[in-house]
Amino acid sequence: MAASWDKSLLSQLGKSIAEEAQCQEVDIVLGPGTNIKRSPLCGRNFEYFSEDPYLAGTLAAQYINGMQALGIGTSLKHFTCNNQEKRRQTSNSIVNEKTLSEIYLRPFEIAVRKAQPASIMVSYNKVNGEYAAASKFLLTEVLRKKWGFKGMVISDWGACIGAANCVKAGMSLAMPDSNGYFNNQLAPLYDGDSELREKLDEANRLVVEAAKKWNGGHQQKADNSKIDFKAHHAAALSFATRSAVLLKNDGALPLAAKSKITVIGGLAATMKFQGGGSSHISTATYPSALESLKAKGFDVEYAEGYSGKICDVSENGYKEALELAKKAAAEKRPVLFFCGLTEEFEGEGFDRENMALPQVQTKLLDKILETDAEVIAVTFSGAPIDLYFADKVRAILHMYLCGEACGEACAELLSGNVNPSGKLAETFPFSEKDTPCYGNFGGEDDNVEYKEGSFVGYRHYEAKNIPVRYEFGYGLSYTSFEYANLEVDLKSHTVSFDITNTGSVKGSEAGQVYIQKKDAPYPELRAFEKVELEAGHTKRVTVELDENAFKSYDTSAHDFVADPGIYSIKVGASVRKILLEKEVEVSTAEAAGGTVSSYTPDTALYDSFFNDTYYAAHHRGTFTPADNLGDMAKESIVVRFIMKTIIRIMLFSMKGKSKDDPSVKIAISAIMENPLESLISVTNGIFSEKYVNKIVKAANRKR
Q: How far is it, in rounded angstroms, from Cα 161 to Cα 138?
């Protein structure tokens, strides 16, 4: 959806989901996710918008406002620095004040200020040495005092570690139910701790207010008959076609109407339209890309080649696929190769090791390319992948993970019935080795230093002039656009320019405005607008700049402050395709934009949060219920036996599924990596408080 660069589309999405929530007695939807994509390898990137905080925050606000307009609350997540899945419940994101404020907090700030979500979900991880759910700095100082957030703060499932500290920090609701464990922690402290009593009263008030306000306007009983599924599917198709990104096209697309084509790849028939984990859903059955292409009148020859099913690496279909590819090459007609990340490579609870596509797919593709067939690649993933074959194929259409109408969307775009208009909301580097956090992501050490600072995503590649496969904001069309007549109004903080469709077909273009202060290392996105234009038509576009367009974060003021000086206003089709540019001198008053902050920071709280940021790992003799089985098992034979036994029982209960199945991977990572306190809640009491204490005692026992 972020690749649509379309604010109205995100609002429409929020409303569509809200309509279904109303009919199913759902009062608050757990989304949107707006964490920054620090690395393309994060397993949960498909749930997040962008590597850029302005784009992520702006789109999140649109989604929230669209949904909450219908009386359904949202839960903006995961607050904050939840940028990897490896050891996600114990990892410690170590980040300095400037980076935290400019990059990782900024999308949440934009969404809170522009949309006031019903709730915010606090993340699993630690930030600068303390759990986010127990951070008074994050939940009270920043979220409530600085940004003016009014709603509930709820924990991610099992993220409440140390209930008293979490309540005092400003957490309102721990999820899921702890089967009395939190009550046992809080009750002995209640009479003697006035701060705890005050914060519990506040938490209760916020939860009760939310229950009264976000009643969803739903029917008395869940009633799916009230949902217009046909209309919603049409909306899903519109979302998918307007978000797909045409990465390469030498004239091979769109396909000639009702022509003969060859389709190869299991993902053409078994559509990959979502990632694995807690967001995984079941939809009604809809046509695949293969079926949809046939329905449009194409004469299709199909070979599976490889299976699109989870964990299937069989090469049994290679022979038939290669025969069809050779035939297509001889007859000078296109081969559509469908490829992408199947669910064992991309899901909640685990990260990717690299950007490579599954070997069973790339091995076949390489053999097809040797036949000199004219290949069009249709790709699927929720994050950047290694498109090493870009120079060898004629076109690449990247569908991302585009929902239930995925198959029909492929046919609409490939046929030219709909003109692609998506643009990348993240950089596609040549390799994970080029990423700013390479070597400092997803390791075994819980302390993760954000050494790259604010040089995240395109900021890194632009500052260091690093070549990339496809840059931030990039995307092609079946038509062409021309930009002209740039004007900048510093008093109103607006930028205006013309976009003309100079091609022969209707199309949409996302105009992007970047701002770069003189001598600054990189430009920054500060506005964008998507417009639809008939062939030959021109539209005057006027966008309002981000409130921080001419500000910088000042660590002495603990806030964004006016930063006057010489700026370049850059307008274009991507961060590297700047088509209009104007230099302006910005005064202090113009940089401030008429806003004066009334925020008074608690300097002592800032100092404590950004000092002593490392978390000291526990070892034999110091383990607590806040530690996990995996770490305890390294030092205790007894715990190692317990953990292995639990995993064996779990695998048996999952009916022989492969360890590469995403549902198995997330379950194993939870058993090994979740703090024992978390397991008390998320296992619905199977891990009892008594059992947890016995495990901790065993782990601390001397040899």
A: 16
Task: Read off the pLDDT band of 219 (50, 70, 90).
Answer: low
Annotation marks residue 156 as catalytic: yes
Tell me if 287 sits within 8 A of 300, measured CB to CB: no
Please tell me the predicted confidence (pLDDT) of residue 220: 58
In 128-276, alpha helices (H): 136, 163-169, 181-190, 194-213, 229-243
Count of Cβ atoms closer than 10 Å to residue 485 Cβ: 11
- Of 92, 110, 104, 90, the C-alpha closest to 36 is 104
CA-based nearest residue to 380, from 367, 399, 354: 399
**What pLDDT, in 10s, does the model give residues 394-442?**
999 999 999 999 999 999 999 999 999 999 999 999 999 999 999 999 8
Tell me if residue 614 falls in helix, strand or coil.
coil
Q: At what angle do helices 7-23 and 229-243 cross, to 10 degrees?
A: 150
Question: Does residue 563 contact residue 552 with C-beta atoms inside 8 Å?
Answer: yes
Instruction: Report CA torsion sign: 650, 655, 656, 657.
Output: negative
Which tokens hold the place of 392? 């060898």
DSSP labels for 318-375?
A: HHHHHHHHHHHHHTT--EEEEEE--GGGSBTTB--SSSPPPHHHHHHHHHHHTTT--E
Catalytic residue among 6, 156, 631, 661: 156
DSSP 2: G
pLDDT of residue 222: 74
